[in-house]
Every structure is written in structure tokens, then in C-alpha cells.
Amino acid sequence: MAKDTMAVVDHLDWKSPRQLHVVGVSMGGMIAQELALKIPERIASLTLASTAARLVNTVLGILGEPQKPNQHDRSIPKSPDDQLNDMKDRMFSESWLQAPDDYGGFPTNSDRISAMELEKRQDVEGFTRRGFICQAIAAGWHHKSPEQLRELADKVGRQRIQILHGTVDKMITVPHGETLARELGEQEGVTKIIVQGRGHVLHFEEREMYNKALESMMEKVEKLR
Q1: What pLDDT digit, counting tens, does each position of 89-116 carry?
Q2: Model confidence, pTM
């Protein structure tokens, strides 16, 4: 998938040094790491949100969900309502879900996410079970060693990298973000933003903060030219 991304930016002729502002969320953050290792000289800034260098054994589940006493219940078929509630629990903080929806006109954020998920499931060609399984496998196999992260940071530049992670992320837990920041070089210039009480999808839960973090990084690296 990093090669696919390279093909797109090459087709657009975005080939100049320090031209690309790369933002990767979750598995997208894993792809962004691969991309940055392949073309580090073209990266202007690199934002890695809710992602990991590798999934470690402190979590259990296909995408890193914390172990629960009823983990075996995954083998039991669930009703559509239970499936939706399980998805929302893993992806979002409870406080955000119960807050009024100020974006889509639904009573709560939870209602909007349910509507979006149900609409997505109607697209049986665009969102297939096979695609979900392949994504889960790819995320599980992603592995960047501390040595590879140091190489990435050396070549891209630590001042150009930032890590964002929510403390109640149940998909890829916050220790993954802490590890990623540490191994990339938090003490040497990498920016780390840990968002208290927020889940996996920070660009939904903290839209203004998220956009401000991106804008600030882009303004910062422009001064490095």
C-alpha cells in the first residue's frame, strides 16, 4: 500500500524534496511509516495518529483490543445492535459518544456513528469481509524495529515528526503511541501529543485540536526550509 501511495504521488508529479505532508491514522499510520522509509527526502512533515510501530502482546484481539473476561464471546453471533455497540466501544470514548452531535444533526455522536456505519455496510462491494480480514492481517504483520524507526527519524528529521494518541484508545492502545514516540526520538525533537480521555478516532473526537496540530506542524516545517 505504501507503493500504491508512491505511485499516486509520482503520477501527480509530487517529487520535489520536502514536498509531502503525510498524515497516517491507525493502519494508515503504518503505511505512512513504510512510505517515509522509502522516500524520506520527500517528506515535509509526518503525522502518525492512533498507530504503532508494531502490535505487542500487552493487547489481545485482531487490532489490539485490550483483553476482556468475555473475549471468547467473539465466536458467538451478535445482533446488528450489539455489533454497532461493540464497534463504537472500541473506536470512540464513551463521553464523546454520549455528547450532542454538533456536526451531522443527530441527537448524539453515537447516533451519527451508527448511521454512518449502517450506510457503509450497504456498500457490499466497497466494504467486504475479505477486505476487513486482509486489513487486520496487514496491521498485525506490520513491524518496525527500533533500528528502523531511528533510520526513519534520521532521514526525515525529528523536528518534522509528530505522534498523536488518545488515552482510551481500545483499538491500538496508548502504550503503542508512547513507544513509537520514544523510539523515533521524543527526547530529540519528535512531537508527542497524548489526548486525555479520547479514543481511536481523534479527528472525529477532537476535530479542532487535531486540525490545529496539523497546521502547527506544517507552519513549523516551513521555517526549516
Answers
A1: 999 999 999 999 998 899 999 999 999 9
A2: 0.88
- 53: amino acid identity, one letter: A
**The three three-digit cell numbers of residue 37, written as one number:** 522509509
Q: What does DSSP assign to residue 21?
A: E
DSSP states along 157-194: -GGGEEEEEETT-SSS-HHHHHHHHHHHTGGGT-EEEE
One-character DSSP codes across 42-107 = GEEEEEEES--SB--TTS-STT-PPP-TTGGGGGS---HHHHHHHHHHHHS-HHHHHSB-SSS--S
Instruction: Determine which helix (DSSP H) or strand (DSSP E) holds 22, and give its type and residue range.
Output: strand 20-25
pLDDT tens sequence across 133-172: 888 888 888 999 999 999 999 999 999 999 999 999 999 9
